[in-house]
Write a structure and sequence with these properties.
The chain has 177 residues and is mostly helical. Helices cover 52% and strands 11% of the residues. The protein is built from 6 helices and 5 strands. The strands form 2 sheets. A 3-stranded antiparallel β-sheet has the order 4-3-5, with no helix packed on it. A hairpin with a 2-residue loop joins strand 3 and strand 4. It is elongated, with a radius of gyration of 28 Å. It starts with 6 loop residues before the first helix and ends in a 16-residue tail after the last strand. 7% of the residues are buried. The mean pLDDT is 81.
Length: 177
């Protein structure tokens, strides 16, 4: 969205371009981020810009999947049909009032239960898959050499080497491509 309206380009221009931004970040575009190797340097950068840790999303409960599944218009129509059926049958034949309406309601409960549990299990599997992908490593230029580091150890100012098929774990500026 920001790229479409050129806001990113304007923001970069307000810093004076890539070279001014690199200078502000204490970055050499040719050799990468120059760190002293001390924890003070790293801690200052992390304190100023934050870490590259994933912010976990709020996990959805099974009940939220039940509510989400019940938002289906067809299921609501079936519940309405069951209520109408129960009302009409109660007036006509009170002895057999439960049969049609109960059958419809039972089918709605089964559909909602199966769909909700299925979606809940899939969500948990996606969370596990995402967690395993997060632990990947990337290649960065630091201290005039290439290093392979965990994505969580990325810092603002790191130069990433991106190859075909790589998933870019951060927002950034393409310097050379």
């Amino acid at each position: 969205d920001r790229i479409k309206d050129c806001q990113s380009t304007r923001s970069l221009a307000s810093f004076g371009g890539i070279f001014s931004l690199a200078k502000a970040l204490k970055l050499n575009i040719q050799t990468g981020l120059i760190t002293t190797g001390s924890s003070v340097d790293t801690n200052e950068r992390l304190a100023k810009f934050g870490s590259n840790q994933h912010i976990p999303q709020e996990q959805k409960s099974l009940w939220s999947f039940v509510v989400e599944t019940f938002e289906d218009t067809m299921l609501r129509i079936l519940v309405l049909a069951a209520v109408i059926s129960l009302t009409v049958k109660m007036l006509e034949d009170p002895a057999r009032v439960w049969m049609d309406g109960f059958t419809i309601l039972l089918s709605v409960v089964i559909i909602v239960s199966v769909s909700s549990v299925n979606n809940y299990v899939k969500e948990k599997q996606f969370e596990k898959l995402y967690a395993s992908q997060e632990r990947s490593s990337v290649t960065v230029f630091r201290n005039k050499r290439m290093e392979s580091i965990c994505v969580f150890d990325l810092m603002v100012g790191d130069l990433l080497q991106i190859n075909s098929g790589d998933i870019v774990p951060v927002d950034g500026i393409l310097i050379k491509g």
